[in-house]
Amino acid sequence: MDMPLELANISSNQDFILLGLSARQGARGALFAIFLALYLLTLLENSLIIYLIGSHRELHKPMYFFLGNLSCLEMCYVSVTMPSLLVGLWAGPVHVSFSTCIVQLFLFTSLIGTKCTLLASMAYDRYVAICRPLHYPQLMRPQVCLGLAMTSWLGGLVVSVAKTTCIASLSYCGPNVLNHFFCDVSPLLNLSCTHVALTELVDFISAIVIFGGTLLVALASYVTIGRAVFRMPSAAARSKAASTCASHLAVMGIFYSATLFMYSHPHRVASTNLNKLLSVLYTAATPTCSPIIYCLRNRQVHAVLRKTLRQRSASSEN
């Protein structure tokens, strides 16, 4: 891939250049405004959800506990990738140090692993609620929910340490120009001038453990849920059960589909604009839409939100 001379000149073995989302000057201003609005909206939505869940006892339930964790993760998630995307749109190609790139990679892969595990935990929660309702208080007691959440965060961290350590040990001969808006696994491996078989093996095994394992748990949960819903005697009961799973299925489908497409092909391939667009889908669009799909359409969250607004309005009048 031919790169502008000025980019090649400022690249070194310890530096990387992020080309960003768009090279067209005319499009960058509009895209900057759009993604800045999405970023701020994502932070606002998830902050509101965390506040509502934490401050209202009626939302102190396993489902909302996991949603609170997911909202916290989404805020961290977009704060890892969106700043470099915005800087690239505002100022053009971004010059980042090797250590900054590796830290961003570490945080991103850790949060991806955590999100996979959280989505599987939420699928298991829906399985217990629909298929084993009488045992739900015992099987999803606070200690179990806390353990699942801690396992999600720690699991993503452990996998990220292994992947990032391998990638950080590689040599990069330059020009270290990444056709992306953040430091991701595939673009970095594509630039390495050393043997990457061990790194790709570690990446493959970690993907099987985290991505494949959690996807199997989620699919098994929903296959069992589907059978249970099909056997329900009334259409109203089937509709109610299905509605409790629809939002999770939608977000899970978008996230897993985009992630599977991105990381199922061989790593040593050139980054394309399609790859960047898919990355935008699960790093910017999904975190913005998830709170609306999960919580802000939920009747109980609506009731709590209206109650909070009335209380704020009454206190301001007094």
Question: How does the overall form come out from the CA principal axes?
Answer: globular
> Could you report the average pLDDT, rounded to the nearest whole number?
82
How much of the residues is beta strand, in percent?
Answer: under 5%
Count of distinct structural domains: 1
Q: Taking strands numbered 1, 2, ... along the chain, how are they ordered across the largest sheet?
A: 2-1-3
Query: Number of DSSP strands?
Result: 3
The number of helical elements comes to 11
Measured as a percent range, the helix fraction is over 70%
Overview in brief:
With 318 residues, this protein is mainly α.
Describe this structure in words.
The chain is built from eleven helices and three strands, in the order H-E-H-H-E-H-H-H-E-H-H-H-H-H. The protein has 318 residues and is mainly alpha-helical. The chain has one domain (14-311): Rhodopsin 7-helix transmembrane proteins (Rhopdopsin 7-helix transmembrane proteins, Up-down Bundle). The protein starts with a helix and ends with a helix.
What descriptive keywords fit this protein?
318 residues, mainly alpha, three-stranded mixed sheet, globular, Rhopdopsin 7-helix transmembrane proteins
Sequence-ordered SSE layout with sheet pairings:
Elements: H1 5-9, E1 15-18, H2 25-55, H3 62-91, E2 94-97, H4 98-131, H5 136-139, H6 142-168, E3 177-178, H7 185-191, H8 197-231, H9 235-263, H10 273-296, H11 299-317
Parallel strand pairs: 1-3
Antiparallel strand pairs: 1-2
Helix pairs in contact: 2-3, 2-10, 3-4, 3-10, 4-6, 4-8, 4-9, 6-8, 8-9, 9-10
